[in-house]
Batch of 3 targets.
Target 1
Amino acid sequence: MPVVELNLNRIKKLISGNTTKKKIIDTLPFLGLDIESQDGDQIRIEYSPNRPDYSTDFGIALGLQGLLGIKKGIHKTNIKKQGKFEIKVDSSVSKIRPFVTGIIAKNGLIDDQTIKQLMNMQEDLHFGIGRKRKKSSIGLHDLDKISFPLIYTTSTREHSFVPLNSESENTIEQILSETEVGKNYGWVLEDSKNVPIIVDADGKTISFPPIINAAVTTVTTKTKNVLVEVTSLDQDAAEDMLSVVATILQMAGFEITQLTVSGKKNSTPELSSRIIQYDIKLTEEILGLKLSPSAMITSLKKCRLDAVQKGKKIRCIIPRYRFDIFGPMDIVEEIALGYGIDNLEPKLSPSQTLGEKSSMTKKLEIVSKIAVGFGFTEALNSNLTSKKILFDSTNRNSSQMISVMDSKSQEHTILRDSILPGLIENLSKNIHESYPQKLFETGTVFSRAKPIHESINLAGVIAYKESNYSEMKAILQSILKTGFKINSKTKTPKNNVSIFDNGRHSDVVVGEKTVGSIGELNSNVLENFKIRTSVIAFEIKLSGLIFD
Amino acid sequence: MSQVLHDIEKKIIDSLKKKSEQSPEQLLESTELSIDQIRRGIEWLRLKDLAQVKESSKVEISLGQNGIDALKNGLPERKLMDLIKDEPKTFDEIRTVLSGAGFNAAIANAKKNGWVKIDKTESGSKISIKEKPIETPEEKLISFIGDKSIAEEQIENKLALKFLLQRPDYIIESTEKSKTVSLTEKASKIDSTLSDSGAIDVEADVPPVFAARTHPLKDTIDEIREIFVKLGFSEIQGNLTQSSFWNFDALFTPQDHPARELQDTFYLENIKSEKPATPKQIKQVSTSHSQNWRYNWKLSESQKMVLRTHTTCVTIKYLAENKPDEARVFSLGRVFRNEKLSYKHLVEFNQIEGIVVGNNTTLRDLMGIQKEFYKQLGLTKIKFWPTFFPYTEPSLQTMVYNEKLGKWVELFGMGIFRSEVTKPLGITKPVLAWGGGIERIAMLKYDLDDVREFYNNNLNWLRTV
């Protein structure tokens, strides 16, 4: 979950109403925000990825105003329309990054804290809805350093300009191969020969999206007026992103002015609200809450939406930046939030159904009971384990192994096809504990089929000096006999099993079917696991034997 | 003070009262206990200050190889005297019978005893009897020792012993350590017949033994499963390996969503599901994605096999296949995340998820089930906070107050499946879902601060937790 850092004094000021720090802290969770940590007035907040407007304290203040009842209803983005600012789209971008949109924000005050908040917002937008800048990315510029109209076009990789945080000109190629952002995000442009750039009327490059801005337009605490540009693979995604930025900047005290976008497929953003018709009866059906339509409207307004009753429906007005709202079910949630989740009384209706464990669970419980009765302690190992344990140390054949891709843990790379190697590893970790040691485990094992076959196995080990084949055979036969009335036999195997000693293991047979094997671990395996006592082991397949 | 005595102790005390100082071997005979029982009994009595053990060493004397020969055939000097009994003999004649060291010793000792005289003649030195040989103290000592082993202090003629010790291999000296047990004053006051027969030392320390047991995490899983069953839920099961279709697409997770990336989800290498779902299901899910998320949905992405990241794929598949009008079912088992292992993260952990379809399916009902669930677990201080899950709306999380940590801890999540999830799969009734990770609850229960402990299978922990 993404995190944003807030200062309580600053947010109290942003809310600009009668409230206390305590009230703010108590209310935050009911906006769906988790307080991760608090250090005096600094608090770190976790927010949901579907609410990028909460990536700044401005957005959170907007939400708090509603729930605290200080300001209710929609926070409308007022866009002044004037044709002075324009960006023209050159058709060469159409195959690389076809869409651009933007907005002008004027007469604002930017302090260090605001810059920090805006940077957090930018990072979150890039990572989340921007899909690591691939889908859409954003640039903020000092408006007063730019001559209009702008052109969104392409250049070769030899093109050069002074990028952000640099003092000298760099070619595109250099930026991609030498700077950190270039290395991190260069993949977005794939192998295209030409790359997108934004150039102003004086021919200055101001941005190389989605990688880096030019140094010349850097936003500082001296900046009064800002140009926001968003480039994207999808126009709606671009406007989603823009709407969040416009809302935040307006909340930060800027006046928002239109940026005219012209060019093939592109258009000037409207950022207009949407209407969702909401059926009043849904509130009771979904929440189990009898609310009057006017109470529903009040709740929606506390969530910074607008709503009007029209007969049996409520006409909800959704601001552009609330693109997380898809339909009526989202409106139900907004009503619940506005009403206050802590005001919802849980109610327990008696169940109309009788619950039951699965037959597999019931059978496995019997296996556990008997195994424990024989003095076996239950072990739990991972399904995802290592080649070393599963194959190398146990002399087993790895040709059919099933791997996962890019595991972050060396110990978890292969799906187990057998439970026994894990139990042997457990013995190996416990050589300093007193003997005898008896362990068992039931669990899933995997094999290749179309696409994967899963079955449940049972394995057991007995480790101590006098452990012997007959002891284990007797136990295994008794588990099957007393638990499931299954008679099992042991047969001299046709082939040797590499984990066992030659001549000291057998197949476990039920009827005509071989269901597993049992035997004495061979000395090479014991040596690999540094076990200095003798170990008898078995593994049988329970699927198809005691359940389907 | 009453003294509790073991039967072994009583037998030893009784025997020692009859004969005050005994070695363990002597006690073996007098008590008819085994040597182990006697050793143990002596040790117990000593710890209770009822017996004392004196350790002493004594020297035992027995005959060596030459001594045994002398016992049978006489000392070399005696053999010499027998040879010259009738007439004097030359040295050469004697050497044919007494050779080497025996010859020298015979001549030297016979001379020393004053038994013989030696005359030089033309045919060499001749030896003849000077005086009738009587039995020497050394000879007496040899017959006294005989084939026995005798304590040094029992030998009176120490000088004879000293002489024999100087001669090679006649006498073997061996030192034996021995113990003698005797009663203390305290013990002599005990009337062992008065203490209860069969009583044992109930206060003595005993070595620890360990019961075999099911895994503690499994116990918590079972407990939670029981509560679900009690609340009217039935268990359903599904595979740990799933197609991306059921793990993600059916749950309305767009194909470019960060959660679907390699760094969060385990994909199986080079394995795909040819037909992850029915053609109708695929078509409708595809349409829902394209319309709502506005992108080109690809079948190939949905065919990729993953280790399930939640149990929700099992419940949604159940709903899509059975389309029940009413149901309470749950799915429980391992789920996987490609995470770095840490004290709070595992790559593989257990999750449970219950769903309710049909009547009484409002958010308040779901909250009621939650509240009851936690009550059954013994957690009564709970509250609900809104949260976000990609496939439910509205979504809540339960916060449980942890007395020990002094703070609210997030446990299970819940919500109502989005219609974007249910509609394409032909599910028309509202579906409530709730669930979460089990290790978190087990950690509270077993007071662990490192979740990895559950999978270490450390016997010391398993045997004592």
Target 2
Amino acid sequence: MLRSSALSLALGYVALGIVALVLFAAPLWYAWQVTIQDSRTELLQIDAQRLAEVFRRDGAEGAGSFIDARVRMQIAGERILLLTDASLHRKSGNLPAWPSNVPTAPGNYKVRIELGDHGMQTALVHVARLGSYNLLVGRDNALFAPLQTRFWYGLAAAVAILSIAGLMIGLISRRALLTRIDSIRQTVSAIIHGDLKHRLPTHLNDDELNTLSRTINGMLEQIELLVHGVRNVSNSIAHDLRTPLAELRSRLEELALIRPSPEQTFAEIDGAVADVDRVIRIFDALLRLAEIDAGLRRSGFVALDVADLAANAVEFYAPAAELKNIDLALRSDGPVSVSGDPVLLAQALGNLIDNALKYAPVNGSIEVAVRERGDGTVQISVSDNGPGIADAEKSKVMERFYRGDASRGTPGVGLGLSLAQAVAKLHGSALELSNGNPGPRAAITLPVDVTSPFALTATPQETGAGEAIASATLASS
Amino acid sequence: MKILLVEDNERVTQFVVKGLQEAGHTTDHAGNGRDGMFLAASEPYDVIIMDRMLPGDIDGLAIIEVLRKAGKRTPILILSALSEVDDRIRGLRSGGDDYLTKPFAFGELLARIDALHRRAQAVNTEIPLTVGDLHMDPLTRKVTRGDRPITLQPREFKLLEYLMRHAGQVVTRTMLLENVWDYHFDPQTNVVDVHISKLRQKIDAEFERPLLRTVRNAGYTVTADD
């Protein structure tokens, strides 16, 4: 229990409190003692002087009766007076005899004296010599004793209250801390046992533990995402690589069994190489996806002109569009600078155009648009007049290897949209799919990089990218 | 060409050495970093093919760095199973001239070696290019076949220029994507083929002898030979 951090912290504070109390009380105590003793000694000396005057004026008899009068007047015990002759025989005063522990030499002494009905008391005495007589003037400490006792009691009570309160606070906060830590511990051990769905409990107040919990929750979120991604990728690999590998295997096995003519064998070998190429392509695409998902590519961000990027992509795909008699058009309003990875953005845009080319009908149209919007963002979109994506399929198309019913029989590995989605995510955006007018539309919105000087220094598009697009209608450029 | 192959995998070595021999090249082989470093430093080679991960304490990149520091300018092609872009950049930064990911098609390797060798022999980008009766002047950007002028779009011009600079060699689709379009990814579809067939329409369609030819399982080549 002493190893509990909350408790030892509380005990530490208690110890510190006691030390502070003592440090405060000790000088006070010392000062009090010294001051009182000094002033009392002074009072005794004044008394002694007054008696000495009486003695000088009225002789020993006068002094004796003066002392007796004083003794009778005063409250018993407060003041001690004694006048003796040279052989220490009592002349007058309220002591029966010269106390054995008080020397007869003049001076101040602190001694314990038997004081009639008060018993033994500590008293401060002053001894003086009046002619051949000895005078003892003193006061007992009885008056100050209760004050002293009260001081000590007060100090002890303060220490006790401090200790108990500290211990209570320590125990309570230890309990509170343990409760919260225990819930964290339980959550974490659930996570260790493989259930990544759990999150640490958080409260509304923003204390240190809560902030920590939130940070850890964020970390768990990311870990879950990554683990999910890895699981997805391995599932996908298992599923999608098995198919072409199985085909390859049966192709080779058949070849070994049948042993056909050389020409046919060579044709089969070519087919096998194509199968392997397909496997490698899927592999590469998956690795790249995993790499993007892990956020490793952010180091490759540079300032780039998305309008130029789009123009190049449109130019690249134009002949393929022409082949299907599809009108591939670019709509852009001049250079727009963003911060991003040029290779990945080109690939994402390429995949979107490629996708549109696959699904747009013959004689259809595809529009690639780069629109700078008022809120400091730029939207790159690809829309076509094809059949579009059913709402139910929308989330599925971004899943790895998902291929819609309409895509059966078209080439591709089913990673295009998930790659575009991953690239958008890496750039802090998302791939938005909508069914616009006339057909489906895929868009990525990026923040415009205003700090980059690119927009000003952007080179004019390489000798008119527009010209190169044979059938492209350039809406505005 | 005299080529040094530094590679520890026996199958890959066998496959590459045999292929290079058939293509008429002399090949030396080193199976580890130490031998590779020794051969590369002491013998004159036209091209070095360097596996990135080698057994022992010296890896491919370390050898390249040492060679470059020693002032050796031999073109080096890095072979690696690491395909991530960062690895590629690290490979090229260490002094490699080109990077090829395993597994690779032999045609791709051969084409890249040829391109590296050609590049090493300082190319003058201003002299007119000629293949058979096809002429290209990079300065005036005029292209003629026989006495007939051919009008090309800028990108078609760049495509043809790249092919003609590597006349007689096989140029792969990946090389075209990287060098003509600067696209470092696989566009999944046969877009490069469509660009080639458009170019072919312009330079070959009306002539008897085709110059732009398809090399099966590898890529394309521009040549006047039969």
Target 3
Amino acid sequence: MTEMVYGTLSVRENEPILPRWWRTVDGWALSSVFLLFAIGLLLGLAASPPLAARNGLEPFHYVQRQAIFGGMALVAMLVLSMMSPRAVRRIGVFGFVLAFAALALLPAFGTDFGKGAVRWFSLGFAAVQPSEFLKPGFVIMAAWLLAAGLEINGPPGRTWSLILTLVIVGLLAIQPDFGQATLFLFGWGVMYFVAGAPFLLLTGLAGLVLFGGMFAYENSEHFARRIDGFLSAEVDPTTQIGYAANAIREGGLFGVGVGEGQVKWSLPDAHTDFIIAVAAEEYGMVLIVLIIALYAVIVLSSLWRLIRERDPFIRLAGTGLVTVFGVQALVNMGVAVRLLPAKGMTLPFVSYGGSSLIAMGIVMGMLFALTRSRPQGELGDHFRPVGAGR
Amino acid sequence: MIRMPLRPLARVLDARARGENPDAIERENIRRRHYEMHDRFRRRSEGRILLLGAFFLAAFAAVGARLGALALSEPREPRTASAAGVGIVAQRADIVDRRGRILATNIGTYSLYAQPPLMVDKAAAAQALAGIFPDLDERDLLSKFSGKRKFLWVRKKLSPEQMQAVHDIGDPGLLFGPREMRLYPNGRLAAHVLGGASFGREGVSAAEVIGVAGVERALDDTLRDPANGGRPLALSLDLTVQAATRRVLEGGMKLMNARGATAVLMDVHTGEVIALVSLPDFDPNDRPRRSLGGDPADNPLFNRAVQGVYELGSTYKIFAAAQALDLGLASPDTMIDTRGPLRWGRYRIRDFHDYGDRLSLTDVIVKSSNVGIARVAQQIGAGRQQAFLKSLGLFEPLPLEMVEAKGSRPLLPAKWSEISTMTVSYGHGISASPVHLAAAYATLVNGGTRVRPTLLRQDGPQQGERVVTPETSRQIRHMLRQVVVRGTASFGEVAGYEVGGKTGTADKPKPTGGYYDDKVIATFASIFPASDPRYVLVVTLDEPVETSGPKPRRTAGWTAVPVAAEIIRRVAPLLDLRPRIEPLRPPAVTLTGN
């Protein structure tokens, strides 16, 4: 059949999987993810030797582990991205049940590795952080419930997904991990917003979050100390943020040179939460701008594809996944440049960390599966400018 | 909106007639409606997703902009913002006397602290430190250096020699922090007024100097207030007068074998305390620790002039006399019945000597007759007496600018009965501090307006409320002068300065109740020059004994008065008082003839 209109997608019967995947996947975003992972490895070469030296390991031990985990993450991502939205939904819901159970069992079987928050299961060779794996499953589950709620004769999906979110937030708050809890709350809020939440309710919700934050400030010393550190005008140069800000200043536009950085020796979290500071010091602002641009490309390109999506579940799940991914990147970088109070969040695909890497691989794999180009019905769509409203 | 039923009856009937499943119609309708809904939802979401995209774009741009601002700014020397360093204002204002001479100032010195993780040879360092500072224990130091601590203070202040010696140890873990320390260059002079200072919050690079007693503590906020710009605090004290007073008093205390002594010199118009000495005293540069146990009055930190609340004896008689004059109950020449003993219930009031049947009011004061003044007090009555003493400030703690002033609350009779009225009139059963007494005398003799004592330099006389009439004030001055001229304080005469005053010798109360026979508080409250008083001087000796005669003498006339006279002789010229010398007889004209 002739393609009558530019841009329409032909549905070809019995097309092999790989060519069809290649034809329909979001190439821009995919390339960006690979680039980010490569940058992450490069930075790992700079940032992790001090940690390896402290733990008595060979210098590039952590880079090797990162490469192995990264390989697993990329495979998971590619496999997931080849699936149909229906399969993604099934896997997501199944994964959600598993991860949720793991999260609920944390207080009984988890460990805190001496960091004051019970967030991990120790498996001997690696530590698993269930809240990372819960993210993709949660987004799929909540999107499914919200989408089902929009159907005729559907279940009350909104209420159910809200209850689910609050339970998860509660579980995270007792760890305590207010950063992740906020991320889940925000992710659900965005999905609800896209699903058509009334604006009045959204402002109310924002107020509630503010109130909750103030409550946490009053009642959690851990939380209050971080906020205080952020609000004080002077940076204490002996804190992580102080080191990070100093490193960024030292780096300037083009950096002090590969391997010349100093901040990685003084920052305990140089390879995870503050990797951006290491990057800024050694490679300068140029690399950071590139990293920011890559994240922006991933987020915006995915959103652009989701705008045209007709299926509510795909649209909601897609925006949810993009939000989780984008917000995590934003918070991590925002902390490093002192736009946000210190919050332990990894930089997706760049920071060291098995759980986070694989979980982000799953998130992006699902996102790519959902953003693949597929026929969207009416011919009239192509004559109507996007975003023209109702 | 037209609502389309999901199961239109006509079509359902139609389908049934044809033998088809009518549910298929409903499913088809739902599918169609979903399609429309999805279209509608998508249109609604489009704008919202665009908004989300805009939010992300803006957020990434903000991070980028902030990063640019940070990366392109110049690296600055990091400023300490740790909790220890925040807001330590090191500069403390100087304290000067009324002529601007320094009483308290700061000097730069160093503190010594150790960071054991940086130390090279802990054992050698501990040994060397114990050698430099004999009060440090080597083993104790070594255990501290070897423990888990990463930081510890070793000494708060170092002399330059000590600092060099520590420097010569050469251990990188021994470090110096700059310090400002309080210095009192005059040593013991005015120690009780100044109090002392010590370190408050301490950081490596600075430490707070806070007052611990006296003016330093009471005006701590003012001294540390950066808004004052380090402007020195001017006290009312005069350094030279203070030095002379202290010197004479110390000699007098030894001569009179007294346990302690105090002298207060006050300006009668302004209430300024020109000199305030309490012996024994201490060096505020090396303030002794508060001693526990023992009589607090023997502690050198005890400020007798302010905290020493004593029964001041006959010096109170002038208050009853002044009130009687002011109320018009008596004139200076009114004759008072002085036949003793005066019985009141089970009490007897008697005089030191028998002064005969009657004395004029002036002579009651001059001879210090207890019986006479008690009769005057009876006429005045308890209510009026209390109101009058209260108006002289004898009921409240002193308003002085030092923390110890809170401890100067006078002791009053629990129940002000008529016998209390009588004993209070000659200064028994009521206690107040020497500064109280000085202020009350100043009030009476300055023309009759209330004076409140102060330690800060004043610009002009106090405009206090009127307590007695100027005429009463004049009569009082005359009476006080007569006490020196022909009464109990005859040793108080200082040529040219017209000293007036009133003695008081009070038996010391026993802690167990009752009074000692052989322990007194001897007080001389003096004014000079009596015709137009400028100053009040109160000298109080604690347990004086004058042993030059055949019998030990303890009365104020033999003990406190000569000491006070010597102080006045020394101090009056320093206060720019010109002695009034009787004019020489005009040369007579002698006729000479030749």
